[in-house]
């Protein structure tokens, strides 16, 4: 069981505010161990995690305070802290015999503006997380409100953040296959998020978590909002190094701010570096918003990936692709890599229908036509035409009832069986062309 990984202790219903001091008969090792545990315990106590019994009972008995997502504190065990922020701490824990992460948010009572902001972020994060279900979105489990401390319980992601993972890698060392796998996880999670009308607004490598299987999940929805509400909201809610220029300028944002941030994350995957190294966050924001600067793309970056990154971080939000298009492009890149094919730009270079019409006018239904992998130059003098093989196969079967004498049918069927989706070019050889 996950509990064996650490020594948990439970939320206690007690008025006691101290631990018993070890007796002098204990060994020095035991004394040191107990002192360390006491420090950890005292640190947690300041967060009101050691709840007084009557307070817990009163809170648990109050129907109006309970929500559908309210945690059963009697089933919650807290372990070691592994991350922290300005107003929050994140601990390992066990909830109902399951390994979890427990985010504790300390709401200050003496700062009205900060208190109001943190309470709103808590409500927003819980409201959004509790309705999201996707393999690439961190799973919400429960939450609780016990002023001045609120907590959110989610699945535990054992491998930490994507930024931590990249920090352990040599620059430019990730393989194209690994880059695509991680990028697909992120983009699929974001595609789902946008399909639910949610804008993340703080997509970055520190908010992307890895599990035991090295799958990525999108996390931290404290600054997220529904798209209809985000349009009415101004202000920079994200992190400067990943922030879209329109957010830096405090303009109303759309879902395309997440696409910009994804472009920066994709750059991180290709380099393993922190974006805008050598700059402070404010300097990075100024460079993006006022000078239209972006992190330098390495020469080793695949041209197709470089093209996608540039589209994602375009200055004009309307020029950035949707995540559905990003997922489609990355899936095709991934298929090409797995089949040992070169990555091709995922953009329509010529109109497919126009090609079909020209071919129909040139080819007899009974012609014997060989197929090769280069386009005729006089039809496409500057750029090749790329079709899906499924489209080519359908066109072949419907339009080219060819004889089998040259073996082209068998060869074509072999290609389509081995490469069901990669993008290839087709040349139709005919005297009429």
From TrEMBL:
Q: Which UniProt keywords apply?
A: ATP-binding, Kinase, Nucleotide-binding, Phosphoprotein, Serine/threonine-protein kinase, Transferase
Keyword match Protein biosynthesis: no
Record CDD domains: STKc_MAP3K-like
Q: Which domain of life is it from?
A: Eukaryota
Give the Enzyme Commission number: 2.7.11.1
Molecular function in Gene Ontology = ATP binding; protein serine/threonine kinase activity
The family database entries (InterPro entries) matched by this protein are listed as: Kinase-like_dom_sf, Prot_kinase_dom, Ser-Thr/Tyr_kinase_cat_dom, Ser/Thr_kinase_AS, Ser/Thr_Kinases-Pseudokinases
Q: What class of enzyme is it?
A: transferase
All residue ranges annotated as the Protein kinase domain in the record: 76-337
Q: Can you state which reaction this protein catalyses?
A: L-seryl-[protein] + ATP = O-phospho-L-seryl-[protein] + ADP + H(+); L-threonyl-[protein] + ATP = O-phospho-L-threonyl-[protein] + ADP + H(+)
| Family, per entry | Belongs to the protein kinase superfamily. TKL Ser/Thr protein kinase family. RAF subfamily.
Put simply, this protein is called non-specific serine/threonine protein kinase
Q: Which organism is it from?
A: Sesamum latifolium
